[in-house]
Design a protein that fits this description.
Blueprint lengths: L1 E5 L7 H4 L1 E2 L3 E5 L4 H11 L2 E5 L11 E4 L2 E4 L5 H7 L6 E3 L7 H4 E3 L3 E4 L5 H11 L2 E4 L12 E3 L4 E3 L5 H9 L4 E3 L13 E3 L3 E5 L4 H13 L1
Parallel strand pairs: 1-15, 3-4, 6-7, 9-10, 12-13
Antiparallel strand pairs: 2-3, 5-6, 8-9, 11-12, 14-15
Length: 220
C-alpha cells in the first residue's frame, strides 16, 4: 500500500485534521504543499481544502464513507455549500455529540457508533451513510471513531479491546487487529486515516506500527 508520515505544525495526530474516503480527502485549508502532496500520493484521492466550524479539525467534525458525508452541527452554511460541490449526500447532524468523527467509525456498509446516540440519531446515521449501525464501546471508550480506523478491508483498533467488544466485532464480521500508532498511542482513530489505496499516520509511528497497519489493510 501507499503510505505517508506527516505532521501538522508538530502535531502528529493526523486523524484530527484529515478525513478520507476512497475518492476524496478533506484537508485543512492552510495545509502545506508538502503535506498536501504526500497525502495525495498515499491516499490517491482528490484533495479538498476546507474548514469545518471554521477550524482545521476536519477529522473530529466529520464522518465520511463512499455514500455520503455527515457534518458536525457546528458547521457553517458556507462550508456545507462548498462540500456539496463534491458529495451527492451532505448532511449536518443535529446532535449534542458534536465531535462526530470521534463518535463514529464508518465504512461503506457499517458504522460503529457511540452508545450515547439516541435511536433517532442512529437512524439518521443509517440514512445518510447508507449503513447498518452497531452501538459499541472500544476498549471501554464511548468514542469508537477515536479508537479505530475502519475501512472496507478491515480495522485497526485500540489494543486494549475488551473480550465482549472483541466478540461483537467478530460476530458482525469485521476483520481487525489491535495496534497503536504514533509511538504507542492506542487512540488510533485520531492518529491516522486510511482508505483502499493507502494510509497516513504521524511521523512518530514506528516501523512495527507501520508493519501492523500495512498487514491489516493490505491482507484484508
Amino acid at each position: 500500500m501507499k503510505s505517508a508520515q506527516i505532521t501538522f505544525n508538530g502535531n502528529d495526530f493526523v486523524g484530527i485534521f484529515v478525513k478520507t474516503n476512497d475518492f476524496y480527502t478533506l484537508v485543512p485549508s492552510n495545509i502545506s504543499k508538502k503535506n498536501e502532496e504526500a497525502i495525495k500520493r498515499a491516499l490517491d484521492t482528490q484533495i479538498i481544502k476546507t474548514t469545518i466550524s471554521n477550524s482545521e479539525l476536519l477529522g473530529i467534525f466529520s464522518v465520511i464513507n463512499n455514500n455520503g458525508i455527515l457534518l458536525s452541527p457546528l458547521s457553517y452554511s458556507k462550508e456545507v455549500k462548498a462540500l456539496k460541490e463534491f458529495f451527492d449526500v451532505v448532511e449536518v447532524f443535529d446532535t449534542q455529540l458534536v465531535a462526530i468523527g470521534n463518535n463514529i467509525a464508518a465504512n461503506d456498509k457499517l458504522a460503529i457508533i457511540s452508545p450515547l446516540f439516541s435511536k433517532k440519531e442512529e437512524k439518521f446515521i443509517q440514512d445518510v451513510l447508507n449503513v447498518e449501525t452497531i452501538k459499541l464501546t472500544i476498549a471501554s471508550h464511548l468514542t469508537p471513531g477515536a479508537n479505530m480506523i475502519l475501512t472496507n478491508k478491515g480495522a485497526l483498533v485500540n489494543p486494549n479491546l475488551k473480550e465482549g467488544e472483541e466478540e461483537k466485532l467478530k460476530e458482525i464480521g469485521i476483520k481487525f487487529f489491535g495496534g497503536t500508532l504514533n509511538y504507542g498511542t492506542p487512540y488510533v482513530g485520531i492518529c491516522g486515516v486510511a482508505n483502499k489505496n493507502g494510509y497516513c499516520t504521524g511521523i512518530s509511528s514506528t516501523g512495527i506500527e507501520l508493519n501492523r497497519i500495512e498487514l491489516i489493510f493490505t491482507e484484508f
